Amino acid sequence: MERLKSHSDFVTVFKRRRKVVANDIVVHYLMRGDTASLNRVEHAKSVELADDSGDGVASSRRLGLAVSKAVGNAVMRNAVKRRFRVLARTHESKLPPDCDIVMRAKPSAASASYQALDAQVSRLFHDISAKVKAKSGTASATGAKTGNASAGDRL
């Protein structure tokens, strides 16, 4: 799983305002292929990044971590980040391709057990996948309906 590195990548994910929530984790997500959510420049940039990966795989998932000082001191924040990275790699296959996610730790994540975080990440990644599938299914169905209705209105 690649990393989200630039500030603009984080801002793009947060601006989309799509998230799933658990007791100790909030996961913000963005589908890079969703051109309606990106402006042309950002979309071109994400396509360039996908094409320049060099490994022949254009679809990749990217992970960003946000752990505030409310979680604890630097040692605790880094421990939470290490756990999140391992859990994200473990459950990466549950995410749809071309997905950017930002995992944000709530203060309670510092005291949560690894098993509890594992269960939460598994459920959240599954929820993201289900929401993306549901949206892509309804978007194509409603797009066809609205397209026909608007054409009928013009006649």
Task: Report a brief summary of the structure.
The chain is an alpha/beta fold and 155 residues long. Helices cover 52% and strands 15% of the residues.
List the helices and strands and how they pair.
Blueprint: E1 2-3, H1 7-16, E2 19-21, E3 25-31, H2 40-51, E4 62-66, H3 74-90, E5 99-105, H4 114-154
Parallel strand pairs: 1-4, 4-5
Antiparallel strand pairs: 2-3, 3-5
Keywords: Endonuclease, Hydrolase, Nuclease, RNA-binding, tRNA processing
Subunit structure: Consists of a catalytic RNA component (M1 or rnpB) and a protein subunit.
Region (Disordered): 135-155
Provide structural commentary.
- One of its GO terms (cellular component) is ribonuclease P complex.
- Residues 137-149 have a biased composition (Polar residues).
- Pfam families: Ribonuclease_P.
- Keywords: Endonuclease, Hydrolase, Nuclease, RNA-binding, tRNA processing.
- The protein has 155 residues and is of the alpha/beta class.
- It has a single domain (2-133), classed as Ribosomal Protein S5, domain 2, CATH 3.30.230.
- 52% of the residues lie in helices and 15% in strands.
- The chain has helices at 7-16, 40-51, 74-90, 114-154; strands spanning 2-3, 19-21, 25-31, 62-66, 99-105.
- A five-stranded mixed β-sheet has the order 1-4-5-3-2, sandwiched between helices.
- The chain is globular and about 50 Å long.
- The termini are far apart.
- Residues 47-57 and 146-155 have low confidence and may be disordered.
